[in-house]
Amino acid sequence: MAEIQVREKSKRPHISRPIFERTFNINSEQAIRVIRNSYNRLMVSLYAIDVILRIIGREETVDEIESIVGQMIAECAEQLQQEKLRLEKLKADNGITETPKYTHPREFVAKIASPQIAQFVELIRLLDQLMIVMDTLWLCQVISNKHCIDARYQWQQRLQRLANKIVTMERHAHQAAYEQGHGEELRLARQESGLLAEPGRIYEDEDSMVDDNELSPSSEKVGDR
């Protein structure tokens, strides 16, 4: 009985953290794949960077990582936006006003637990919007099958590689803090925040972000969309 009481006293309450839940419809297969392959793992890493590492007092590390992550996300968003504007002009120049419907759109419930999670969610939405314009141009025979297939794959991979880099940065920061004697603080902080005690397994090779069913540009069939 005494042992049970000691364990109960050693438990620390879970942190009550703020969170937004936002629901979006995602249409394109490419944006759906980014969510399926990368989102959950990335969300944990971004929250760990933004909150967990600050709890153990690694302010300088967090500030540096947040700056790098913010810059990477901003650069990707700018590239997506520029390409979307370019394709929208091409659509307007060809007098196209239609927008396709998608056979299997998904409802995406995003849990926003840090500002940078919100930023990455916007990247996913921007990717979806870009894919819709691209698919429109393909259906209207303005761009070729090969160009469309290659572009879909490259933009999807662009987001998945970015997600993998961020996850890798969080893992390295976690490992460095652990090696400097902050292991128990990290474990408690992650536990109280509802995260696993240790970061999940990630892949060193960025291309391995794609799951076993992913299609490469050379193997994707347009009719399968």
Itemize the secondary structure elements and their pairings.
Layout: H1 2-10, E1 20-26, H2 29-55, H3 59-93, E2 106-112, H4 115-139, H5 145-192
Antiparallel strand pairs: 1-2
Region (Disordered): 201-225
Organism: Methylomonas aurea
Protein name: DUF1845 domain-containing protein
Question: Would you mind describing this structure in some detail?
Answer:
The protein has 225 residues and is mainly alpha-helical. The chain has one domain (28-107, 115-198). Helices cover 64% and strands 6% of the residues. A two-stranded antiparallel sheet has the order 1-2. Helix 3 (59-93) packs parallel to helix 4. The longest helix has 48 residues, at 145-192. Residues 201-225 are annotated as: Disordered. This is DUF1845 domain-containing protein.
In what order do the strands lie side by side in the largest sheet?
1-2
Rg over CA atoms, rounded to whole Å, is 21 Å
The biggest beta sheet is recorded as: 2 strands, antiparallel
% residues in beta strands: 5-15%
Shape: elongated
Ranges where pLDDT stays below 50 over 5 or more residues in a row are: 1-10, 200-225
Structural class: mainly alpha
Mean pLDDT across all amino acids: 80
N-to-C series of helices and strands: HEHHEHH
What's the number of extended β-strand segments?
A: 2
Number of individual domains: 1
Instruction: Output the number of helix runs.
Output: 5
Helical proportion? Answer: 55-70%
Cα distance spanning the termini: 61 Å
